[in-house]
Amino acid sequence: MAGTSKGEGRIGLLNGLAAYGMWGLVPLFWPLLKPAGATEILAHRMVWSLVFVAAALLVVRRWAWAGELLRQPRRLGLVVIAAAVITVNWGVYIWAVNSGHVVEASLGYFINPLVTIAMGVLILKERLRPTQWAAVGVGVAAVLVLAIGYGRPPWISLVLAFSFATYGLVKKKVDLGGVESLAAETAVQFLPALAYLLWLGAHGDLTFATGGPGHAALLASTGVVTAIPLVCFGAAAIRVPLSTLGLLQYLAPVFQFLLGVVYFHEAMPAERWAGFALVWLALVLLTWDALRTSRRAAPALGPRATRSTGPVESTGGTEGTGVPEPVAAAAAAVPGGACDLPGIADMPGAPVAEAGAAPLPKP
Predict the structure, then answer these.
(1) Among 274, 284, 310, 328, which is most exposed with the fewest C-beta within 10 angstroms?
(2) What's the rounded mean pLDDT across residues 259-268?
(3) Are 181 and 56 in contact, with CB atoms under 8 Å apart?
(4) Could you please report the per-residue DSSP string of 181-218?
(5) Please, is 356 exposed, middle or buried when counting C-beta atoms within 10 Å of its C-beta (0-12, 13-18, 19+)?
(6) CA atoms within 13 A on the CB side of 114
């Protein structure tokens, strides 16, 4: 049993590294889709993501949820809001990468944990510990320093952070499984996206039809690029401790930041380094506080509390649950605006979640 557990842990760790690695390297993919503009790329991502997810649902034969959702107008309305918010997130991210703002985009996913925590206080009336307050304060100072450095507010970072924090908040209320949720949201996006692509085609501006078969294949692969990291994340989420995922999540914005500086050669004057240093200090405080709290809570919750379940649910407050706050507040910070975690644990052959295990938030 010990060997099996270690083997499962290694598989989970490799899948986690693969997921966050792919999200971190996704800025290399979007420029390949030029000369398509950001809006056309976004529309293709919506259309082909639904195709991919629908195929997955056919494999697992799970459609009953759709009828239930259609009979619940409130949840359906929340799905529409989630789809609209993630559309903004995806669109701004793609535009930012293809317009030479990779570093600023990475900042959005660095500060997303802080924004999520702030929204938890303001909207959900959650209580923070002193270290968490300090982290939020340092994060606010970082944004001010960066605003001075850029000569404007870092609006790309703020839009990405606030849109995904809002998305996570809405998703908490929807309470759908991973594959189902992604399918519902892309179904909302599908018709407007398809209509836009048809409009582009009617005006002769659709690069899918004029860029050759290779370009068309790349545009179609946006659905795969959206879904494959989510599958890897799902495999990791049911095999590795939450504290491990809480640390792995920072790989993606780190990779994006390094790509922006080293590969895309974006400028990093001293004031930007100072702003990023403050952000990283805030995240160190947040992570240290979360790990300390989880270690204290673990004996009371038992050894299973450090394992994740299969279905993943986004949550704001985790006080007293033993779930590390960077995971609970920021695992939703999927770089590139990846949408949702497939319900891997619900698929045939998936490991059974342990009873009493703490839930892991969705990205």
Answers:
(1) 284
(2) 95
(3) no
(4) HHHHHHHHHHHHHHHHHHHHHHTT--HHHHS-HHHHHH
(5) exposed
(6) 28
What's the pLDDT score for residue 32? 96
Nearest-CA neighbor of 261 among 101, 124, 110, 43? 101
**What is residue 54's predicted lDDT score, i.e. its pLDDT?**
87
Distance of CA 112 to the CA centre of its chain: 10
User: DSSP letter string over 122-189?
Assistant: HTT-----HHHHHHHHHHHHHHHHHHHHHTS--HHHHHHHHHHHHHHHHHHHH---HHHHHHHHHHHH
Residue 338 CA neighbour count, 13 Å, CB half: 36
Q: Determine contact, residues 359/313, Cβ cutoff 8 Å.
A: yes
Residue 120: pLDDT over 60: yes
Q: What is the pLDDT of residues 327-362, one digit of tens each?
A: 333 343 333 333 333 333 333 233 333 322 323 333
Are the beta carbons of 232 and 5 closer than 8 angstroms?
A: no
Cis amide leading into 35 (omega within 30): yes
For the chain, give the number of residues. Answer: 363
State the pTM of this model: 0.79
| Dihedrals phi, psi of 308, to nearest 5 degrees | -95, 155
Q: How crowded is the C-beta side of 70, counted as CA atoms within 13 Å?
A: 7
By the 8 A CB rule, do 215 and 208 touch?
yes
Q: Say whether 243 sits in a helix, a strand or coil.
A: helix
